[in-house]
Each structure stands twice: as C-alpha cells, then as structure tokens.
C-alpha cells in the first residue's frame, strides 16, 4: 500500500474534476436551454422528423468523437479540461445528439407505438439518472420503490382492483413483462419446470404431451419469443382464431381449448390483447375470461398499449373485463406518454408474483429485516439492478393529475378517427379497418394501380414509405395485411393536427407520383 | 367525427400546456440548481447516506402526492397550472425525491456493486429521456444506435477484438445479458430447442440425458435463474469447484466436464466470472478457455464488474484470456461509472447474436432496406423497445476520454487494498480474503465475541450492519462466508477517502458496543 503513489494522486485529481458539482450545474443549465429550444423547433416542424443517415456513417461519426483506448489516454491532450471548456464541449455533444435523433415531438411523427412523451417526464427521470437510484432491494432505491408502489396502486385502481390481493411490478418493457408473466404461468402449469426443467416437468404432469400456449393470432412477436425462451418451443404456440375485426373469437377459443385438452396437451396460458399490434384490435375480454374460467386456464392480457383506455370515460369500455386477467402488462411508455422504458406487470393474486423466480440471493435479502422482502423488487423481476423507472410517471401524475392521461388518450384516439375519415373520403386511399383506437392501417392506391396485382400494390407501399420517411417529411411505419404490405400510423403525438393529417396524404400522393414514373 | 367537440378542445389545451417548451426550460434550470446543490451537499457528507424509512410509510407518502383516479380528475382543481406554479411544484417534487433517495455520492457509501456515477453521465442520459430515442429498429433510434455501435467498438478494442467478426449489443442489465447469452448457448447446444422446446430438443440430441449448465460456484444468482427461465431446470446447474481463493479451478473443471460427458449429459455452457460477486474473485480465464476448447464447450464469462479492469494498465492482468470467451457480459453501470442500466453483451462470433431469437416481426423489419437489419437491435435483445442506454457512456467517454475509466478503476481498487490493510491491522476485525479488486468481505469480532460460536458472530454482523445503515452513517451490505453472515463493502465511490475508511471501522465499533450491551 502506497498512500503517496503520485500517479494515483493524479488520477484522484482527474476524478474529482469529473465529479465537480459546478460542472453538473453549468452543464445542466446549458442542457435546459438546448432541450427547450430543440423542443420548440421540433414542435413547430421547423426541420425534419427524421434526419435519415446511413447507419454505418452515423456510427463512424459517433465513434470519431470518442478517442479509442489505444490512442493517447490522458485527459487534456485534446480536451480543454477547465470548467468552461468542459461545459462548452458538453453543449456541442448535446447539440450533435439532438441533431441526429428522431424527433418524436414533431407533429408529423405518426409512427410506432412509441409516444412523443410529456417533455417534463424526462426531467423527473433525470433525478434517478444523475443520482443513480438503483432498485433490486428496497434500501438501495427507497424512493424509486415508493413511487413504483404508489403508481402500482393508482393503476390498480384504474383496473378496478382494491385491497391488497393484487400484485404489481415495474420492468424494462412489455416484452420482459410478458415473458415474466408467462414464466409464472409455466411454473404454475408445469409444476416443477423451474427446478427440473421443461423436459423433466412434462414427465410429471398428467400428460406427456407437449404443453401449448394459446395466443391471439395477431399478438406481438414477443409472445411467441417467450415460448422459445421458456423452453416451451415456438412450435407449440397455437394461434386462437380471430373474428372479422381481428379480435379473438371467444367461441372458437372455447373450441380450441377443448380440442387441445382432449388431445392431452397441458395449456400454459391464453394470451389476449388490448389491443393487438397490427390494427389495434381490442379482444372481448369478458367473454374470453368466461372461457378461460370454464377451462381453468391462466389468462394473460397484453394491454401494453390499451391499458391507458381505463383512464378515459369515452374509451374504457374497450377494456371491460381486464380486471379478470390472471396477469396483465401495461406500458406507461406507450399511452401514458412517458419515455421508454416503464412497463407494469400486474397479477390478480400477488402470491403469483413470487412464482417467477423460486430462489434468492443471500447477500441481497436480509433475514434480520423480515417483511421488507415485499419491497425488494429483485425477487420478482428478471432484472437484479433496475432503474427507478416509475419516477417519470409519478412526477407527471403528481404534477398534472390523472386528467392529463385521459386527455392524451382522448385526443390521440380522436386523431385515429380523423385519419380514418380522411382515408374513407379519399378515392386513392384504402382504409383496411375501422380503428378502435389510434392505430390505423391503410394503403395508398392511386388510379394507375387500381387493377394491379396485390404484391405490386404492396411493393408500392414499401417504396412510398421509404421515400416519405427518408425525406424527413413524415414518419410512418410498414405493416402487412393478409401477407401484402401496407402503411400504418399510430397517432401518438397529441400535438398532431388535422392539417398534419391532410399533409400526410398529400406527401404520400406526391411521393407516389415520383415512384410511379419508374415503377 | 366532431371537429368541434368542446371537451376535446379543452383536452387539447391542457395537453398543449403540459408540452410547453417554456415549462421544460424553467423546470430544467431549477433541476440543474437542485441537483448541483444536492451533489455538493452529499459529497461533503452533510447529511446521511441513507435516510432510512419504513417502506409502507414512504410508499404512502409517494401516493399521497398523486391524486387517485377516482378523485377529481380536472387539472387546476388543486394545481396552480400557470407556468410559475407548475415550475414551483416541480421543484418541490424534485426536492422531496432527492431527500428520500439513497446518496451514492456520499463518500461513506461503500455498498453494493452499484457506483456513484459520474454526475454528468445522467445529463447525457436525459437527452434520451426528454426526447425519447427508443431503439429496436435503427430508424427509431438512429443516434442511440450509433453511439451504441461506437461504444461496442471501443469496448471490443479493450477486449482485444478487432475487425468485424465479433458482435455486441446493449441490454437492460447483466441479468438480462447473461440470460440472452445462455439462451444462445442453449439454442446452439440443443439444436431445435427454440422451435420444439427443451423437451422436444433433448430427444433429438445424441443423448436423452438432461443438459447441464456448469457454473462458477459463486456466480451471481441470475445464472441459476437463467437455467430456470430457459427450461433447463435449476436442478441441472452444476457448480464447478473453487480453489482456496474462490476462483474456479481449471483442473477440477476439466474433471467435471469429463464426468458429465461420460455420463451422457449435453453441456450447455461453462460460466466463469470476472469477477464473482461475493469476494470479487477473478477466475483464471486462459486456463478455463483451454479446458472449454478441449471439450468443445461454450464459454460464457460474466465480467459485469471486472470487465473495466481491461482499461487499467495496473489491473488488466486480472482478465487475461477474456478475449477467448464465446460470450461475455460487461456492465457499464458498474465499473464504468454510468447510471443504471447499461449492460453490454459480446459474442466472439457475431453470427451467434442472431441465434437468440429466430424469428422476426414483419411490421418492424423492412425488406426494402436490406443491410439495415444489423442495426435493428430488436432482432438481438429480449427487449423490443429499448432505451438509448449507451448515451451516458458515450457522453462521458467523449468528454473525458478513456483515461477517466482507468482512473476510476485504479482509485477504487486501491481503496479496496486500503480497507484490507486496515482490517489486517485491526485486532477486532477479520478480513476473509485478500481482495483482488474493490470488493472486501470481513467481520467485526470484538474481544467479547472472540470465542463465540460462528452463528452468534454471524448474527452480530447482521445487527451491526442494520444499526450502521439505519443510522445513515455508512452504507455497507450483508453477505455470507461458509454459511455464516459477514459484512461486505464495494469501494465504488471514487471520492471515498482513507478517513472515511477509518470512520467505517469506528462506526462499526461504536454500533457494536451498543449491540453488545443487550446481545
């Protein structure tokens, strides 16, 4: 041990400079101005939605800014390490980052199920990022745990759950939440699969037939993935038939379950959607819950997008019956308009939340403080260390009250109706469904293509989308209907106007004309 | 459709107020001052490390601040919705959050493997939180993707990988990274387990014996969990024997693998650690890689904590051989000192990174833009939507250069040695190992307990820790050695001083005296 190692003294001085509170202050003020000006400009559509760039070039640009390990490794060689110098450099890096990101706050962003978040939500989130409030055990993230518990309580009230029977947890996204819920369903259905493995467990249940997972045919890809991850096998995912509006058909679900059981297959769960991804179809949850109850099958509802409808008097009928799910997923980073990621996983019976992981880490969970384990999130999530991911939602909720979330649902669902009305009125557009929410799937079919074969019309949609997106004018996404490509919008920036919707159709028509010249 | 629904007009006005760039600006400036003042105060140890509070009380306090859904739902009832009013309220909520969090920047924080992060890292992170830069497909998070690619390249250089053969991805924590790597190993080893399930796949491999996962006996609990999640079964986790310094013993690993193979068990992977959690033991990776190569077994290294040693000339010998791993995990939110979560998963052969999830989502991945898929992170992570989690690391690296990371490793590893030296010199403390890094496990055994049975000495450690932590003086964690409780420190705040280490021993002695009066 050498207390006076001069190279360590120098290291400590460099570290102290990096941890200087005055650097945080001056950089924080610069950031506030840069973000506010950027938001103003983006909301005014002064630039592009997406500044499209080749990913290799952009990655090279990001790499060029950070010196490689093998290059000189002493701060100060190339850097002005004074406080004003570091602040200036910080501002340059922020500016560059803002200029190369996607601008979800541009009202012409009508893309994926990822919102233009309430801007101040990101500032609440930054409390956790700057101070680091990691969860896993209560002690390490006491306030992160408290706000998560508060929001679990508030959302449970929306679901219609009172008391202390239900359980909830926040995790990093709906894919992980769905995986965790289906892990619980697997552990419950195939009794010893956690300990003995799926191969060992299937040998102990009543049947030696492989277990099946019955899912909405349009369910998000993470559901089938879960079957692959959990050792059930994607081949054992059974798609439940849909009705003409692509909602799960309870009568045919009943038949499917009966047939599977007669053939001797254990059923891990039924996965319903509120709503399904492609066109935002809401399954009839009450009738599905009846069917599942009759067969004694676990009902999981992926309400990642649609859970927020519970907060709207106009739209909550879409999720009637959600309270009957054994487990459900609800993303705050979709229709509660906070930044990614903040996904809620709920269990009707909280005891099930401990079924996911049947083991503990003795160095984490303290037997001298019993009763705290309920607040140690690591016992119930795939993550050990977890961000304090609910801070943003708690902050926005506390600042504005729940009415803001109702407003956001009402305004964006209304935009879905408005886009649909325009498509119906336009002879050169085809709406593929009447929207139940803010997701709309459609095609642009100009007169010249009215009699073209479907594949060609589909190919035209791909080219249209690419042209419009790479021009920076609008951002919308590709999809498919019966195997043929379509366009798809999620109206998830509440500042989008009717003029923006008119402009979208115009932009697609203009791009179409150019494409048709060489199509 | 009613364009003039007055209640929707009111909703749009409330939404516009919440999205006002001027609110972001004024709140951002308040946040900068509040965070800087908090950091200054915490770094000066003016308050407590942890303001301990009962979790039920704290959750109730967090809930009391956000109105329930069933209460009045109109903003303005209880809220001053003017810009100054909202800014004032925002500042109150920030203050409250800061006062109830854990203060990792207090130099007396010597707890879990979670750092006091470089403060400005959180501001880089906030760019993504305020503007929302979700990844999954390149288009939606172009800059998030670019900085991730840049950092993958920089860390790969540290590992010693050049060219384009390796693959890397960022995910939400090492638990998820380890799970993903072991999923790949499972898919590679049990050829059709993704499609047919583990039960179906084991029937097709050469043996019908259950597959085994061979792990460092002290590996993090997420490794055994992965066996439970992946359908392999926690019963099929085989612990590889350790040497006297709790490092994996390559000779006995060789024997273990030979015995398992002779008995007909497929081997999914060997999991080594750099370093293992309990005492920070670094496995001899070169020799382990030799053994794995000889048996043709996948080698995964959990270098979540120790990967950063690669950046230090003094300590990189600890991870010699890391470049020979088939897959490895490295958390930037541990020893690269950025806030949670930013975990890197690397594959020696990048083709393996597509083995994890053998399916795609047609509405996400665009066939008209081939070659982009390599930049669509969602193809290779459990997450679909993902935060732009590498922004903080990229920002710090670009601002200060890689020397800062070398400094942080050197300074904190040195603190580990300094604590150890004090323990060795103190007759009433027992160091349980000579530290290889910044993790130190020990016990306080005052004279009165020198002859007490081990369980009683262990019980004393639990009570000591609880007393010191709940007093707010220091934060350290519980652990166990041969089944008996210990104290454990990770020196992961680089501003911790020798005086703080002296004070830790004093605080434990003082708490011990009080406990002994009624023990």
Quick overview of this protein structure:
Chain A is of the alpha/beta class and 519 residues long.
Account of the protein in words:
The structure is a homodimer of 519-residue chains. Chain A is of the alpha/beta class. The first copy, chain A, folds into two domains: 133-401, Aspartate Aminotransferase, domain 2, CATH 3.40.640; 404-516, Aspartate Aminotransferase, domain 1. Helices cover 43% and strands 11% of the residues of chain A. Chain A contains 15 helices and eleven strands. The first copy, chain A, has helices spanning 6-18, 21-43, 55-64, 83-100, 119-131, 142-159, 174-189, 193-202, 221-229, 250-262, 285-295, 391-400, 403-425, 454-471, 498-516; strands spanning 167-171, 212-216, 237-240, 267-273, 299-302, 327-331, 343-347, 429-431, 439-444, 477-481, 484-490. In chain A, the strands form two sheets. A seven-stranded mixed beta sheet of chain A has the order 1-7-6-5-4-2-3, with helices on both faces. The first copy, chain A, has a four-stranded antiparallel beta sheet with strand order 8-9-11-10. At the A-B interface, helix 1, helix 2, helix 3, helix 4 and helix 5 of A face helix 1, helix 2, helix 3, helix 4 and helix 5 of B.
